[in-house]
C-alpha cells in the first residue's frame, strides 16, 4: 500500500468516526433538551447546535461520497447508544445540569480536536475539497465549546440560586 493509500484510508476512518461522533452528539442533545426546563438559555443553544450537528453530518457524508465511501452504520448506532446512556447517567444526579455542562464542554473539545486532526489529514492527503467543509464544522464546534466554557460560571451561579430558594435546579 502506498503512502497516499494509507493517508486516504486513515482519512476515511477518521471521517467515519466523526460521523458516528456527530450521531452521538445528537443523542446527547436530544436527551438534554428533554430535561433543561429551568435553563432556557442552555436549551436554546442546544437547539441551535443540534441544527449545526445535523449539517455537520451532511458535510461528512458529502466528503465520504466524493471519496466513493459511506459512513459506518455500525459505528453510528454504537455511539448513538453510548450517547443515550451517557445522558441518562446524569439524570440521577442532583446537579444534572452542571454534570451535563461539564460533559458537554469535554465532548465539544473532543470534537474540536477531531476536526483539527481531520483537517491535518486532508491537507497531507491533498483532499482540498474537504477543507472548507471540515473548517466550517470545526468553527461551529469551537464556538459551542467557547459558549459552554464562558457560560459555565453563570450557569453554576443560577444553579446555586435556584437550589438555595428551594426551586428545581437540577435540570
TrEMBL record:
Q: Which SUPFAM superfamilies match?
A: Ferritin-like
Q: Name one Pfam family in it.
A: DUF892
Which region is the signal sequence? none
**Which InterPro entries does its entry note?**
DUF892_YciF-like, Ferritin-like, Ferritin-like_SF
What is this protein called in UniProt? YciE/YciF family protein
Task: Name the source organism.
Answer: Chelatococcus reniformis
Amino acid at each position: 500500500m502506498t503512502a497516499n493509500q494509507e493517508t486516504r484510508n486513515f482519512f476515511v476512518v477518521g471521517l467515519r468516526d466523526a460521523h458516528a461522533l456527530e450521531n452521538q452528539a445528537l443523542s446527547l442533545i436530544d436527551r438534554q433538551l428533554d430535561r433543561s426546563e429551568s435553563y432556557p438559555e442552555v436549551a436554546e443553544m442546544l437547539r441551535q447546535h443540534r441544527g449545526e450537528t445535523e449539517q455537520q453530518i451532511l458535510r461528512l457524508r458529502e466528503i465520504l461520497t466524493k471519496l466513493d465511501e459511506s459512513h459506518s452504520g455500525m459505528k453510528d448506532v454504537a455511539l448513538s447508544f453510548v450517547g443515550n446512556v451517557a445522558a441518562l447517567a446524569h439524570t440521577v444526579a442532583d446537579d444534572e445540569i452542571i454534570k451535563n455542562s461539564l460533559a458537554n464542554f469535554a465532548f465539544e473539545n473532543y470534537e474540536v480536536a477531531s476536526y483539527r486532526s481531520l483537517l491535518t489529514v486532508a491537507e497531507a492527503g491533498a483532499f482540498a475539497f474537504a477543507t472548507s467543509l471540515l473548517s466550517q464544522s470545526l468553527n461551529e464546534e469551537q464556538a459551542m465549546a467557547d459558549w459552554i466554557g464562558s457560560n459555565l460560571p453563570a450557569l453554576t451561579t443560577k444553579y446555586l440560586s435556584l437550589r438555595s430558594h428551594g426551586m428545581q435546579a437540577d435540570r
